[in-house]
Structures are given as C-alpha cells and as structure tokens.
Design a protein that fits this description.
Helices cover about 80% and strands about 0% of the residues. It has about 400 residues and is mainly α. The longest helix has about 35 residues. The chain is globular and about 60 Å long. The N and C termini lie far apart (about 40 Å).
C-alpha cells in the first residue's frame, strides 16, 4: 500500500523542477507578449506589421514542433529541452539591439524555433513524470506554473517598458530564460526507446491520436491572437485604462480553475469541462466586442481565464491519453502545433481585420471561432457514438 501511494505522487523533485523551469521561461515570454506590439510601433510599424511580427513567431514554432517531437524520441528529452531554451535566451536577448522591423521579424523566427523546441519538450517531460491515474490533475498543476507567470508577466512587462528602455528590458527577459535553462540541467530525465517501425520512410509530422483535441484547441487559441496582439491597442483607442489588470485577472481566474478542472476531467471526462469552458470564453469575446468600460474589460478577463483554464489542460491530457509512451513527444508536438497555428493565424488575420473593420470586429470574429470549436466537438461526439453502435452490432 505504501509503495502504491509513493507511485501516485505528483510532487516529486523532478516535477517541481520542470514546473519552476516552465514558470521562468513563461515569465520571460509573457513579459514580451504585450510589449512586442509596442516595440514594433516604436520601430515605425502599423497594425498589419504588428500582426505579422506576432504571428510569424508562432508559425516558426509550428513548423519546428514535429521535428522537436521526433527529436524527443531519438535525441532524448534533455537535449531537446536545453537546446530550445538556449535558442530562446539568445534570440530574446538580441531584441534590444535591433533597429529595424525586418531584423526583428527574422529574430522572431529564431525565437519561435526555440519556443517550439522548449515547450514541446517541457510538456512531454511533465507527462512522463505524472502518474497515469492523475494525468488530468497533474497537467493542470503543470499548466499552473505557466499561469503564475501569466499572472505577473504581461503587467510587469508593460510597467517595466514604461520605466526602462527596451534594451535592458529584453535582456531581463532573456535572463529569466537562462534561469529556466539552469533549472532544466538539474532534472533527471526519463529515457524512452524510440521503437522505430521497420520499413517506415515517410516523414513523421504528427500523431493521429492527438488530432481531435488539437483541432478543438486551434479554434480556441485563434481568439488569443486577437487578445495578445491588439487588446492593448484596442483599449488605448477606446481610452479605457487597466489593461495591466486585465492580464492579472485573467491569470488569477486561470489559476482558480487549474485547481479543480484537471480532477474533474479525470473523474467525469471531457464533456464536464469543455462545454462550460467554451461557453465562458464565448461570453468573454462578446463582452470584448462591446467593451464600454474597464469593469467589462475585467469581467471579460475573468470569464476568459475561467474558460481557458478548464479547457486547455483537459484537451492536452486527452491528446496524450491513448498514445503509446514512445509517441508522447509527437502527440505533444501535434497539440502545440495546432495551439501555435491558432495564435499565429489569429494575429495575422486580425491584423487585416482591424485595419479594415476596426478592433471590435476582432472579437466578434473570435466569438464565431469559439462557436465552430463547440460544433466540431459535438460532431466528434456524434461520430464516435455512431462508430460505437456499429461495433456493438
């Protein structure tokens, strides 16, 4: 009985280290999230260029995640994670030395590669360390480390860029990534045999078992592209103060749901968290499209945080639930590829929408995207039900 309890522990030394490393890399990233658009403006860019500079980062991460997933099974967890963190540190540290949008665009591509490798590795390492019976709960706690960074990162970034030049600011963000790299070197990584399939020569770009949750995640993170890139500019245009508090309320709401949503998923399944979660996000998008004052801004932040905090860890747990251990890296890569694609496409498309129709149109479009995710979920349920009936007959 004592051995069984020991096996079911979540908070081991290595799990604490991966959570701490995840916190620092996310803090460095989240501090740049609302400040990159301001940096582009400082360099002379407009809304369309902001969308492309924000979006190219996620496309770079997207393109490299399949290779990161494959490398996790062939080169090992340690190599991929440390390699990705090192690229992130160098690229973010270089931002303050750049004097043109073209150079920033190029270094955002490099940063995206580091982000793609490091976050794919980090999620896979966390899943290795969590007991199967508590995977939803464990992934929720792991995600909480990123949410803690989100609670302080955007607000801290906006405050600091109002106090210090961009050069020391970006060096500080790089230093946080360096702290993550040092912590990652102390983790004892699990070794996984790749078990290659004989005669299989085609390029391995995704894990089929992770496609359904990844597709649902795409339409949800599509909305985040509009928030990350344009919400600070939208609130400024409407003369609404408190954008720093938006990110704080959003992150606090995320943390609240992380404490119970994973356990709810483990006990009741995806339906118990996905339906209420997406409804909350949908309500948040409607409020942002309206946005008459700061109070509605904060309410939208809370609703979005509660909804996203319920949906994201459940979908991530589902993406690795039924895949073999030696395919977890590729399953994680598939999930985060769709995650990134949603943010990247959202930022780029919303850059055009805001230019043509105004900022409020971004959030009306986002509401439609959430509705599509919900319809797709019901389609998956219906198709699985029909398949079960055929197998029963």
């Amino acid at each position: 009985m004592e051995k069984q309890l020991q096996k079911e522990r979540i908070w081991t030394k290595d799990f604490i280290l991966i959570c701490l490393a995840n916190f620092f890399i996310f803090l460095g990233f989240q501090m740049t999230l609302p400040t990159i658009p301001l940096f582009v403006e400082d360099l002379g860019g407009n809304d369309q260029l902001i969308g492309f500079v924000v979006g190219i980062f996620t496309f770079s991460a997207l393109l490299l995640r399949p290779y990161a997933g494959k490398a996790l099974e062939t080169k090992g967890r340690r190599f991929v994670y440390i390699f990705g963190l090192a690229i992130f540190v160098v690229s973010v540290g270089s931002f303050g030395f750049l004097t043109s949008i073209v150079l920033l665009f190029m270094m955002r591509v490099v940063q995206g590669g580091g982000w793609g490798f490091s976050t794919t590795a980090s999620g896979t390492i966390a899943s290795d360390l969590i007991p199967v019976s508590r995977r939803g709960e464990g992934m929720g706690f792991y995600g909480l480390s990123g949410n803690l960074a989100l609670a302080f990162g955007p607000s801290l970034g906006l405050i600091l860029t109002g106090m210090i030049p961009f050069k020391p600011f970006f060096l500080l963000c790089a230093g946080l990534g360096l702290a993550a790299l040092i912590l990652s070197s102390r983790i004892t990584y699990k070794q996984v045999d790749p078990k290659p399939v004989q005669g299989k020569t085609k390029l391995d770009l995704y894990e089929k078992g992770a496609l359904k949750p990844s597709a649902l995640m795409f339409f949800i993170t599509f909305t985040f592209g509009g928030i990350a890139a344009f919400l600070p500019l939208y609130t400024a245009e409407k003369h609404i103060s408190g954008i720093q508090l938006y990110f704080l309320f959003y992150a606090l709401a995320l943390m609240i749901t992380r404490t119970f949503a994973g356990q709810l998923y483990d006990r009741k399944g995806l339906r118990a968290v996905f339906i209420p979660g997406t409804l909350l996000i949908l309500a948040a998008m409607v409020l942002l499209a309206w946005l008459p004052n700061s109070l509605i801004l904060y309410l939208a932040a809370i609703l979005y945080g509660l909804g996203f905090g319920m949906v994201q860890p459940a979908l991530q747990a589902w993406s690795i639930e039924k895949v073999p251990v030696n395919r977890r890296g590729m399953a994680t890569a598939t999930f985060y590829s769709f995650f990134d694609l949603g943010i990247g496409l959202g930022a780029m498309i919303f850059g055009q929408i805001s230019h043509l129709l105004g900022y409020s149109s971004i959030y009306r479009t986002s509401a439609v995207s959430i509705a599509v995710s919900m319809l797709l979920y019901f389609y998956f349920l219906h198709r699985d039900r029909l398949r079960s009936q055929r197998m029963g007959n």
